[in-house]
Write a structure and sequence with these properties.
It is a single chain. The chain has helices spanning 2-16, 42-45, 49-59, 82-96, 126-144, 160-168, 180-193, 197-209, 213-236, 248-252, 255-264, 304-316, 330-342, 373-392, 397-413, 425-428, 436-450, 468-478, 480-490, 494-513, 521-544, and strands spanning 34-37, 66-72, 75-80, 110-114, 148-155, 243-246, 269-271, 277-280, 292-294, 320-326, 349-353, 356-357, 421-422. It has 553 residues and is an alpha/beta fold. The strands form 4 sheets. The protein has a 5-stranded parallel β-sheet with strand order 6-5-4-10-11, with helices on both faces. The chain has a 3-stranded antiparallel β-sheet with strand order 1-3-2. It has a 3-stranded antiparallel β-sheet with strand order 7-8-9, with helices on one face. Helix 4 crosses helix 18, helix 14 packs across helix 15 and helix 19 packs antiparallel against helix 20. The longest helix is centred in the middle third of the chain and has 24 residues, at 213-236. The radius of gyration is 28 Å and the shape is globular. The model has no long low-confidence stretch (mean pLDDT 93).
Length: 553
């Protein structure tokens, strides 16, 4: 639909002399394909919106692409040439195939996306998966748009939580990834009961920063066990990373010391009454609760913010960067952005997300009231297998896995990041409603139809695609590049999820009303091209969400 919009916008820019023109889509197709709200000109033109619409309608000359205009109240509504939509859109989809939807806006541009970055202290819970799913989808969208994307994972391998694990593991042998969660919960309880153990944790951190080789090995061993276990789970979900940045690097290469010296030059770094290096943050609108950002402990050991600032300085030298963070990190990230501003360094673009809630509410690794992602995915596969057994009396494990993983990802990604996800596994796996299985099934249904065709006639008469439902489908198909562009610019994968459901729903409606295989030969050929294009758009969209397609369900 880009060409049609371009023609309309050119006409309006010439007549109204306004640069930023917003077109709307009428609620009913019978009212037109695009509408211009004339009341935005009423004040400047000193006329009623209805009169402006009439005046503009008299100036418009129909052409090959936009064949008619109508005045409907304060709106000037444009009707595009339906034959041209079908021809232009279907030819474009079937020619571009896996590239359809990409406008290549990222060509020759590099971008860093940091996501997931789970503390290496236990197996991840379901709530942490939202970060990985959003981040991975953004990476796929940006790559699809031609960006050179580098995916980073920031490993907090020298934090207090790791020191606690090291302390909790002292009397244990042959520690496996599966043991870490219980060790972590156990040491938290012990510290609550014996507060003096806190000193031992801080001593470990002090020795580590002083370069004690024995302590460093203990930290590295625990972190290695955990990172390998976490990555195995995420890799199984199809999530990949290019670079693992370890916080310890910024200690060993003295970047934390360099960063403190750089921050001193701002005149805002000082030592407080607790002998800590802190950054004065007054004047940044962060509120009285956060007038300073604490960078070190009283004993001189670094805190996470100092290492994070060093990390951000390094990333800024590599180009534009994006970070995916939970909404509980909003204020902290504002503090980091304020520090970077003092250094005249561009802060990363932050995509904040809200929590994944189960029936029992929010999860916590420290307290142990959580559902592990690995267990949750196994349960999802079991439930998907049950559903397939009910439907077909047999289970294909590959299909069950694709359905289960798709269901979980889609349920999380379809919700706008700033909203909570309340997860219901049974609903997520349903073949009805706004779910991945519903969309995957629409794709499989088209594959089933196409398997019965010996050869697709690529020269079919596209003028025969003229039914109301077909035109609506074409318009949705034509809108895919715009949706992908908006998802790219706004960093919102949920826009693609919403689009896919609308496309699958419209296809299913169409298929119940119109025949394909039993239609007249010429109509059949044209409809085969239509559903082939729909199939391609569904595949491309699901790929951007990290969800696989199935040719048979």
């Amino acid at each position: 639909m880009e060409k049609f919009k371009e023609v309309i916008l050119q006409f309006l820019k010439k007549e109204v002399k306004v640069d930023n023109i917003e077109l709307e889509v009428p609620p009913n197709p019978e009212m037109g394909d695009y509408a211009f709200p004339c009341f935005v000109l009423a004040k400047e033109w000193k006329k009623s919106p209805n009169d402006i619409a009439k005046e503009l309608s008299n100036k418009f000359k129909p052409n090959k692409l936009v064949c008619e205009v109508k005045v409907i109240g304060p709106y000037l509504n444009f009707f595009v040439n339906k034959n041209k939509i079908a021809e232009g859109t279907l030819q474009k989809v079937l020619k571009q195939k896996d590239k359809y939807g990409s406008s290549n806006i990222g060509k020759n541009k590099k971008i860093i996306v940091e996501h997931t970055s789970i503390n290496p202290n236990a197996s991840p819970h379901v709530g942490r998966a939202r970060n990985a799913f959003i981040g991975d989808s953004l990476v796929k969208i940006l790559k699809f748009q031609g960006y050179n994307v580098e995916t980073h994972y920031f490993v907090n391998d020298v934090g207090k939580q790791i020191a606690m694990l090291v302390l909790g593991s002292e009397d244990k042998k042959n520690i496996a990834f599966e043991n870490l969660l219980n060790i972590y919960i156990e040491i938290n309880k012990r510290i609550e009961q014996e507060p003096e153990l806190e000193k031992k944790v801080l001593e470990l951190l002090n020795l580590l920063e002083k370069g004690d080789k024995k302590i460093r090995k203990k930290f590295e061993k625990i972190v290695s066990i955990c990172v390998r276990g976490q990555i195995k789970i995420l890799f199984d979900l199809g999530i990949r990373y290019n670079v693992f940045d370890y916080e310890s690097k910024y200690l060993w290469n003295k970047k934390t010391d360099e960063t403190l010296k750089t921050l001193e030059k701002t005149g805002k770094l000082f030592i407080d009454g607790f002998n800590r290096w802190v950054m004065d943050q007054k004047g940044y609108g962060l509120g009285m609760k956060m007038p300073v950002l604490v960078l070190t402990r009283g004993d001189g050991t670094s805190l996470y913010p100092l290492r994070d600032i060093a990390y951000n300085i390094e990333k800024s030298n590599k180009g534009r960067n994006i970070v995916v963070l939970g909404e509980d990190q909003k204020l902290y990230q504002e503090q980091i952005a304020a520090v970077l501003k003092e250094l005249e360094i561009k802060a990363p673009i932050v995509v904040n997300y809200s929590f994944v809630l189960l029936q029992d509410g929010k999860m916590s690794t420290r307290k142990g009231n959580l559902v592990l992602l690995e267990d949750f995915m196994k349960e999802a596969i079991n439930k998907a297998s049950e559903e397939l057994r009910k439907r077909y009396n047999k289970v294909n494990q590959k299909s069950a896995k694709a359905i289960a993983y798709g269901a979980v990802k889609f349920t999380i990604l379809r919700v706008s990041p700033e909203k909570n996800v309340v997860f219901d596994l049974n609903q997520a796996l349903s073949f009805e409603g706004e779910t991945a299985p519903y969309i995957q099934y629409a794709y499989a249904r088209i594959c089933s139809i196409l398997k019965k065709i010996k050869k697709i006639n690529m020269k079919a008469d596209l003028k025969l695609i003229n039914k109301k439902e077909e035109i609506e489908l074409i318009k949705i198909l034509a809108n895919f590049p715009d949706v992908v562009n908006k998802a790219t610019n706004d960093l919102r994968p949920h826009l693609i999820a919403t689009y896919l459901y609308a496309l699958a729903q419209k296809f299913n409606e169409y298929y119940h009303i119109h025949t394909v295989l039993t239609a007249d030969k010429k109509i059949k050929d044209s409809r085969i091209l239509l559903i082939s294009a729909i199939k391609q758009a569904i595949k491309n969209g699901l790929n951007l969400l990290g969800i696989g397609v199935l040719e048979k369900m």
